[in-house]
Amino acid sequence: MKQAAAIVLAAGEGTRMRSSLPKVAHEILGVPLVRFVVDAARDAGVGRVVTVIGHGADAVSALVTDTEIAVQNEQLGTGHATRCAGAALADFDGPVLVLAGDVPLLRPETLARLLSDWEASGADCVMLSARLADPTGYGRVIRDASGHVEAIVEHKDCDPEQLAADECNVGVYCFDAVRLFAALERLSPANAQGEYYLTDTIAILRADGAKVEALTLDDADESHGINTRVQLANAARILQHRINRVHMLAGVTMVDPGLVWVGPKVKLGRDVVIGPMCELMGTTEIADGACIGPGTRLRDSFVGAGATVEQSVVREARIGEGASVGPNAFIRPGTVMGPGSKAGSFVEVKNSTIGEGSKVPHLSYVGDSTVGSGVNIGAGSITCNYDGHEKNRTVIGDDAFIGSATMLVAPVEVGKGAMTAAGSAISKDVPPGALGIERALQRNIEGWTARRNAETDE
Length: 458
Ligand code: UD1
Ligand code: CA
Hints:
By secondary structure, the protein is an alpha/beta fold. The chain is built from nine helices and 41 strands. Helix content is 19%, strand content 29%. It has a nine-stranded parallel β-sheet, with no helix packed on it. The chain has a seven-stranded mixed β-sheet with strand order 5-4-1-6-10-7-11, sandwiched between helices. A seven-stranded parallel β-sheet has the order 12-15-18-21-24-27-30, with helices on one face.
């Protein structure tokens, strides 16, 4: 079979979203709509992808840097948009998928099947259709008496009889590229919306005696086009169920899967337990037996086997095997927590390495630091890493003990096995094994409270 190409239509504004963001840049489960479509095409084995951009071109092109770009300066309809990809594919004469950029639930297997049906049937076009309980807004597939696809008629152009048809156009097609671009030359905007409809190519091809077939989706959920934020939320819910189901069947416990949001690229090990109100996004990976949540958000992070992350936010960080985070910790980019380490309640860690078994149990900020193994950081201790101009590093050696409410004024180093006295502002290095103490001597005034009480009672 000839290598296939794909055209992804992503130039529309998406007026019905009522948004300053172009429609295809809206996200479900942390992934922009257009990315789902491009990734599905790639996963179906498509080599060349041309994305047609226009409205919000900068924002959209930044999302599809791995594709070729064609620009549609004026949004004159899906047919016009497809034509705009013509120059990029001028030398191409194989099968071309045309995909709406707002159909995120399409499975790669479906696109692969569309391509193999195209090849096997010898049709000039195979389109995807779906039978929908509520076909409002979709183009209807019109078949002739013998059941052959004759045309697609847009909702706004349908007569009452056509409106009653429940077979809908998904907005996804496989065309012979040469026939497609020839048919696009002949579109007219004489319709309810005054646009050049891609859908009109079906009737044009049929009138020329070309063969057009429809592949009807088994799972109509794949067809959901996103035009409004209500549809955006519905699609997210469908994808949530689809993804969670796969993970649960693979050995993940979700206490309430309706309250767990896992992105499509996230990897989960066996016997991972995820409590309610959790969001696991991006390239997050959770190893076997880790316990996440309740109430936890992880993005682009790794959590090692048997670790616990409770009611916390973790971004671009690595949590080691058996480590414990939270409740109410904020683990920020560049953090690497060693095996068995701990970041407890109201602890923020940024761009720091916390060594094996080291503990930051309560109310601390550790930023731009290298903390060795077996270290204990007392409650309320803070690295003063920012001097108003630069971020400076703190280094704490193995088995050091940082007394409660120590201010570590970076750049500063606390040596191996050293201690700092509670309440000290440490701005000079503490040598290994030494005690760093920075405090005024305490003075006790005998009998003071009795004297004060006597004065105030007078
Ligand atoms: C389209 C189909 C309809 C189908 C539905 C499925 C047409 C005329 N209609 O309608 O039959 O049932 O999808 O979801 O094709 N776009 C451009 N440039 C434009 C116009 C649109 O790039 O000038 C892009 C949009 O960004 C969007 C896609 O094409 O990603 C579909 O456009 P949209 O306006 O949403 O079409 P629908 O009205 O949903
Ligand atoms: Ca649409």
